[in-house]
Every structure is written in C-alpha cells, then in structure tokens.
Amino acid sequence: MNGELPPVTQGRIVGLSAGYLGLQITFGIESASLSRVYQGFGAGIEDLALLWLAGPVSGLLVQPVIGRLSDRTWTRFGRRRPWMLGSGAIATAALTGIAFAPSLVWAIAMIWLLEISMNALNAPYRALVGDTLPEQQHGRGFAMQTVFIGVGAFLGAMVPNALSIAGMPNVVAEGSTPVSVRLAFLAAATCLAISVVGTVLKVREYSKEDYARFGIRLTDQQVDEREAGRTSADWLVNLLAYRRIAAMQFFAWAALYLLWVYATPVVAQGAFAAISVEDPRYGDGADWVGVMFATYNGVAGLFAFILPRLFEKFGVSRVHAAALLAGSVGFAGAALAGTPLLLLVCAGLIGIAYASMLSAPFVMASRIARQGEAGGAIGLMNVFIVVPQLVMGLGIGALVRIFLSGNPSGTLLIAGIFCFLAAVITATGARRAAN
Q1: pLDDT of residue 148
Q2: For a designed S-S bond to 22, which of 4, 191, 200, 376 qualifies (C-beta 3.0 to 4.6 A apart)?
Q3: Residue 410 CB-density burial (10 A; 0-12 exposed, 13-18 middle, 19+ buried)
Q4: How far, in Å, CA of 224 to CA of 234, rounded?
Q5: pLDDT tens figures, 258-315
Q6: What does CATH list as the number for 13-213?
Q7: 2, 149, 240, 294 from 156: Cα distances, Å
C-alpha cells in the first residue's frame, strides 16, 4: 500500500524485454532488404524513397493511437497482451506475404501492413515496462530493451548474407525476389511469432484490482477543453524551446533515412560494379549492405556503453557533435568506397553517430523539459525523428531524377553533408552554452 509496484527479479526484466528480439530481427531484415525487394520488382532508383514512407508514416500515426487505446484496455487476458497478440499475428502474416509476393503492388501492400502492425506492436511492448516495473527499475527495463534491440538488429541484418553463404540463391530474376531474401522474411516471421507468443504467455500484467492493492491511483484520462487548449499552447512554446534539437535531428535523421533507402544500389553499383539488379554482383553487394547494417548496429551497441562517461567528461553537446562528425565521414565515405572492407569502416563511423543519435538528443530534451513534462518531450522527439524521413521520402526522388540523373551515389554524399550540418548545429549550441 505504498503506491509502488513491487520490485522484480533480473530474470523477469530479461523476460519482459526478450520479445524485442523478434521485433528487431524483423526490422534488421527489412532495413537491409527492402530496397532490394522493390528493385527486384522493377522500381526505379527515384521511386525508392517514396516507397520507404510506410515506416515513418505508420510510426507517426499508429503508435500514439494504439498506445492510447491500450492504456484504456482492461480484459481478463491483460491490458497490452491482446493488442500484442493481434498485431503480432498481422505482422507475421505480412512477413509471409512479402516472402511470396508476386508483384510490386502486392509487396507494397504487405510492407504497409507490416509497418502498421509493427508500430502497433511496439507501443504496447514499450508500455509494459511502466506497467509492470517499479519506478526505480524503469532504467533497467528500458536498458534491457535496448540490448535486445541492438542484438536483434545485428542478427536480422546478417540473415540474408548468412543464407547466401549457406548456398541460397541471392540473384534477382526479373520481377521476383531472391530466394535468400524470401527465406529471410520467413525467418523473420518465425522469430516474431515466437517472441510475441512467448511474451504473451510469460509476462504477467497487473489488473485494476492489483494496482488498487498496491496503493496506486490510475490517472484519469479525461481532459477538459481548457486543459486541451493549454496543452496545445504549451506544445507550441515547446517547439520554440526545442528548435535547435529539432534542426539537429532533422539533418541527422534525414541522413540515416538516405542510408536505409539507397545503400543497396550505391554499394552494388559502386563497390561491386553491378550493372543491373539481375547481375550476380548486385546480389553480392546487397548481401554486403546487410553486413554493413549489422556493423553499424553492433558498433552503436558497444559505443552506447561508454557514452555516459563521455557525456560526463566532455559534455553532451560536444560528444554528440563529434559523433555526428564521424557519421558525416562515414556517410560520404560509403558513397566513394571502392572496397568492401572500407565500407565496413564507414559503417563503423555511422554506428558511432547512430549510438549518440539514440541518446544525446533525449538527454538534451530532458534538460529543457519542465518537471512532469517528460512525456510531452518524448512525443516531440518522435516528431523530430519522423518528419525528416517524410520530407526525404517525398522530395529526394525528384532530386535524384533531375540533378543526379538517376545515379544513387550522390544521395550518400548528401547524407554526409546533412550529418555535417547536424554536427555544426550541435557544436554551435555547445559554444553558446559554454559562453
């Protein structure tokens, strides 16, 4: 009756977070293979960024809605688990549909379905930490989720290349997806289904009666018109307060989006000299992109362990500016690299920037947010991540067609420039803070 949930064992925290492994294996496979799927069905270079919009659009619209709906769901089977089971089933079906897609239209439809269901699945997974752990264990809970996010993304990005090494064909036949990529999506479906079912069966959610027994008063969700108006006004004021973070995030995440979209054609045509998607060298280059993505995720996971100490010693803004500068070299280098080994070096530099992008801006935002407004700050940060992806998705295709003559390598040079601008904005803020 002390108003706190009871502490749980480390084993339960691991079990609570293990489901993220399946989600991130799926994300790793998708991010390393999506452009490959689209190009296999005949999509042009200038169309790729637009076709990738399913992820950011779904993230902006679906997660807040499902998160709010699951807040208000109370059933005998739990609060979050019904949403997780339903979303997981749809995502598994969508992954299977991608594996057997007969056409570009079908693949696009299945990928939209996958992104919607994955975002619907992510929101309840995140909420489980706050639902089932006491406040003093929230840090451990989210940190453990981060561990599984990194491990899953690393494994997922490696799957297509591992299947190719095992002898599965990785060459695109006209109007189809390589066998290795099809099997990778089926592997993602299997891992995701196991993760979701495992979480649903093993995680215990508290009921309203349980919360009452612990002395916890659930927040009233009703908001009157005056409160809604005040919240909207505060949100606009917050936009001004966070303007430097918004600008910094815009250029950093625009750069990362360009990497996700164009790494496959850039690497296949550049370092592997592929002349078409049917060229066997294209398959080898696309597989190597998976290795690159696994590398930057792995480096990000390792670098994240030392970031807190660097922040304390040198300051968050200075460290973030340096990390973004390393990333700018990595993005531009990937556009020019002529060997697979050099591409891995570039991926490592991008991983340093990525680790800082996932932590430093949130630290900066938490220092701006007033007491009790952390939730609003996180909401704004999600907007700052999604909007640059939407802008790139809607606009970069025309730039590729008109100014780059369909040559994708220039997109990663642009990514390098964007990341450099993000570093300059961050460093400028650090100097102002010092003065």
Answers
A1: 80
A2: 191
A3: middle
A4: 15
A5: 999 999 999 999 999 888 888 889 999 999 999 999 999 889 888 888 888 888 899 8
A6: 1.20.1250.20
A7: 43, 10, 38, 8
Rg (CA), the chain: 22
Residue (of 357, 344, 348) closest to 251 by Cα position: 357
Q: CA dist 396 to 268, 402, 410, 420, Å?
A: 20, 10, 11, 18
Q: What is the pLDDT of residues 132-151, one digit of tens each?
A: 888 777 667 766 777 787 78
Measured between alpha carbons, how far is 252 from 37 in angstroms, rounded to an integer?
26
Tokens 């850039």 belong to residue:
266
Q: Do the beta carbons of residue 284 and residue 170 sit within 8 Å?
A: yes
Q: Which pLDDT does position 172 carry in this prediction?
A: 74
Give mean pLDDT, residues 356-384.
66
Instruction: Compute how many other C-beta atoms are within 10 angstroms of the C-beta atom of residue 287.
Output: 28
Please give the structure tokens belonging to residue 21.
Answer: 């492994």
Asked whether 279 and 40 are in contact (CB, 8 A), the reply is: no
Please give the structure tokens belonging to residue 22.
């399946």
Cα–Cα dist 149/374, whole Å: 22
Phi, psi of 277 (to 5 degrees): -70, -20
Q: Give me the phi and psi of 377, to 5 degrees please.
A: -65, -45
Is residue 206 within 8 Å of 132, Cβ to Cβ? yes
C-alpha to C-alpha distance for 280 and 102, rounded to whole angstroms: 21
CATH of domain 226-435: 1.20.1250.20
